[in-house]
Batch of 2 targets.
Target 1
Amino acid sequence: MTSILELLIAFFLIISGIFGFVGSFGMIKLKDPMSRLHAPTKATTLGVGGVLLASIAHSILLEGKLSLHELLITLFLFLTAPITALFIAKWHIHRHEKPSDLPDAGEDELWATHAVEQVEDVPDHSTN
Amino acid sequence: MMKLLRRIFPHPHLTVLLTLVWLLLANKPSLNSLVFGLLLGIVIPFITQPYWPDRPKLRNWPMIVEYMLVVLWDIVLANIAVARIILFKRDAARQPTFISIPLELRTPEAITVLAGTITMTPGTVSCDLSAQGHKLLVHCLDAPNPDEVRDEIKHRYERRLKEIFE
């Protein structure tokens, strides 16, 4: 019986390992910075999620006590991942995209990042 | 009476959420952590009230559960879809593009949830909001058909959020 449970836990760990690897591999394979953003925000959610599921399963099935700490990690991850991604995306738009390169912002005319006044004293790294 | 209650509990949902988070942090149910969690749940919304004057109204609780299940399922699918693109698609064959999504949602909380959801789901990352908040800029990892992506986001997520928040 225990070995079946261990198999289940191992299954979750392997899943998470695969997705964690794919997420990191994506950072190398995808060439433009905006596409690179996709790999860590998504592939790693299931990577971490798998470890957390395995951890919950281990504490309930093998140790016989309920541990829901892991749900919190999921919650915090879901809160922080999109915000980090948004920050990096906004930085990219600020440094590397002109308003004319982006789709039309419609009635508002500009996207929020371009609507703030451009600060000139930041060193320009866009050429290298 | 209601007014006094509203002053003491500016965000009742936040109070419940903070208490739950504290109980989960303590990781074993006890009266001790329940009392302290409640205390935090009351004090934190009270002192952060000036920074969050509006009260988001949640109207449709069954829809919230449905929305969470839909999003969780989509996150699993998103992981598989992105993994497949990373592993098997040649980088030159990908068609990354920016798309803009006109928003019907007006509440800031609803737009935040939508932007977060877009980032967590298939091949899309939300990048920016238009200056007055009428459109959302989204980057697609691989979108041969941008209009389809836009329609799906509007139909799958925005429609449900509209029922929850507005």
Note: The first strand of chain B starts at residue 97 and ends at 102.
Target 2
Amino acid sequence: MALDTVANAAATPDFELPFAQLGLKEDEYAKIREILGRRPTGSELAMYSVMWSEHCSYKSSKVHLKQFGEKAVKSDALLVGIGENAGVVDIGQGYAVTFKAESHNHPSFVEPYQGAATGIGGIVRDILTMGARPIAVMDPLRFGAADAPDTRRVLPGVVAGIGGYGNCLGLPNIGGEIVFDETYAGNPLVNALCVGVMRHEDIKLAQAHGAGNLVVLYGAKTGGDGIGGASILASETFNTAKPTKRPAVQVGDPFAEKVLIECSLEIFAEDLVVGIQDLGAAGISCATTELASAGTGGMNVQLEKVPLRDPSLSPEEILMSESQERMCAIVEPSKLARFMAICKKWDVTATVIGEVTSGDRLHITHNGELIVDVPPRTVAHDGPVLTRPMARPEYLDSLTPTSLAPIESAADIKAAVLKLMSAPNIADKSWVTKQFDHYVQGNTILSQPEDSGMIRIDEKTHLGIAISTDANARWSYLDPYNGVKLALLESCRNIATSGAKPLAITNCLNFGSPEDPGVMWTFAETVRGLADICLEMGLPVTGGNVSFYNQTGKVAILPTPVVGVLGVIEDVRTRSAMSFKEAGLELFQLGNADDNFSGSEWAHLHGQMGDRAPTPDVDHETRLVKVLLAGQKYFAAAHDISNGGLAATLSEMVIKSGIGATISIPGEVVPGGLTGALFAETPGRVVIAVKTDNVAAVERIATDLNIPMHTLGVTGGDALVINGASIPLAELSAAYTETFPRLFG
Amino acid sequence: MRIGVVTFPGTLDDRDAARAVEYAGAEAISLWHGSDDLKHVDAVVLPGGFSYGDYLRCGAISAKAPIMQSIIVAAEHGFPVLGICNGFQVLAEAHLLPGALTRNADMHFLCTDQKLVIENNKTMWTNGFAVGQEILIPMKNAEGNFNCDDATLHELESEGRVIARYVGANPNGSRAAIAGITNKRGNVVGLMPHPEHAIDLLTGPSEDGLTFFTSILNAMVK
């Protein structure tokens, strides 16, 4: 077909465009015709189709996500909120921190290495776009059963992709999660979180202000990769009957991104941009419409000026291309020469492709012919809003309580602990994390497997931040409203266990198909729970991401709302680590265990799910955070109790320390007996190691805040001894470390 | 005392190397790959990273950078140069040091705290250590597998030019477990692990790495 111009579209109103193949529904196409007063051109259709896709428009989730606005916490710390590329939080001393998580699930199933790599690339550019230097990444990951053949294809590729891209960018990878569950087979979750830091005055926004200012595209040249990725790949459930979408996955070049980061930061430092936007999903379509829509005027773009890697690309493809490592800046004409000089220094291609106008339309021409003439807001913000049907899923009525044999004898205890510690969900993840650089930039204070990742922000004042990502999908499955609340409380507990104060949150909500009323109900309950808990905890939501269609056929993934909490620590030298350095320390558990095994790893190892998530106790968790922060200076070590219960927490501590411990648990006083004390995952608990001289001080703090403090035992020896069951460290460590190499080579 | 730290496109550990230089008590001077100006520094560090994205071969393109031409000439006259990780790869590609750094034997990127034994304390960068001293510093690379022909290995061993070896299981398949080497004169040192990441206990596994940077100060004062 010849170039489909605006004039041609007006002249041929009945020409049929393949809107359905681009993922648009009939009513959506009708709405586009109504907006434009004519049929769209091929280029306009391309833009609307990508920007109105589920991935870009949040059309199924919008009606629910507005709760984050309605229930917003009034926080002085929030400098930039939801709606920009990433939220920005004040951490004091003039520093601002921006952090965000995103999903790259579907591409990572199709092409694990590139999918995961470009997931890192995309989230890093979001952070950079705010004006910040990216300083760390984290990766919450979910895979199908650990021993499934496809997991052996997907996991090593994803890990290599995260490492291959993140290591080359010079970003320390400081944590994340790896969880296996059958429901993720065919739908792995590859979420990536990035955090960046800047001075308050350096915050940048995605706005195109000032008629006559120039639109500059810089970074990599535009190629044919990822075309239609956003609209097709992320918005449609995989269906074997349709042709493969394989070529739609983007290909990353981390070196180009590293250079782009340094080049951009130098440009920002000289204050050379009015507005800035990265090119991610929907490429130029997204960047131009979002910049223009958030600005005061219109924009003219000359598409033939876009530097191409593949000269055969059509205008529609140029608009949709998701080629990586590209940015779009709005630059005043007087600053263009300096902008270009910095790009030249870094060997970054930069091209003026248009200008901001005083009108209110986005005009895109190709060799002088007008091919796009749209109100930018209709593309970027006025996408469809769906109120999807919801229904409480039937499975919730047929849940059965767990039925687990009690553990009593010493032989039983030893066998149970070894079985737990070698389970893929609990076992040592260093096979994975050794492939990630956690040292680069020289500011990493804590990294995986610690409770949170911690980064020093200022070398002179010792100010730092901590980040933790958490989700408990099984609890969300049992009770989506409370499941996400528990995830947030766990994340806060992790932050405080390391010695930092929770400050703000982000999220990445991974769900099945929104067209399934049961999935939609669990999603709605999750959003309601998250908005409520943030209000209760006084934590602002800085932004988030929704990933739907994580579903193969009728099987949806477990609802997996990943919550990321950012904390601040005034002096990183006071942080607590999970390992202790000496024998003779007293070990205590803060908080009580109960007898609910539902959703626990112990139940999972017995093929059981259970029937109820724990009840979140916000009051207890708030007081526990206070105890952790006040007691910080007295702790020789601290470690949260979560997956695997107390048994896993103690095992992880002694293995990391290389020093054993002797534990005595009076089983009869715990509601779940010894089994509950060791393996239930009752939230609101932390293990601390304290020097004898400091015990009284810690007890006073716990008593004042009404937090139960139970004596567990004492550190020392070369075994973990629990109620007389002696597990030599070497044997425990072997069980813990052998699983991943055995599974993945 | 001024120590230059070179930034190539894709260099990552330049700020870390500069921090280590300053911890040791010297002034860190930033040097740019595209200039041949050494800015009158007394020594230079080629830091780690993925210069030029490791394209072609690790360090191959950087070895041709203008700054390297000045460094090569100076090094041949005794100017002190420390190449860390990618910097070691650049030195090998620039033929200031023999051998090549190839893909790790298990084909994975490896980030770990690695034990080394110091075998030569006569170089300008290792004089603060004792021979036989064991140190613990991070290593992180995908191409750290040192290889050379038999004649070169014999020369390195017989002249005592292996400055550090891996202790315990060979982490990456390097010949003779070699972690670092020096040139005949002892002014150019290449090391795969990262001493700049072991300068304090807050951010590193030890303070052992700092000695590489204090050694050069000692060497210059003498």
Note: Residues 67-380 of chain A form a domain with the Phosphoribosyl-aminoimidazole Synthetase; Chain A, domain 2 fold (CATH 3.90.650.10).
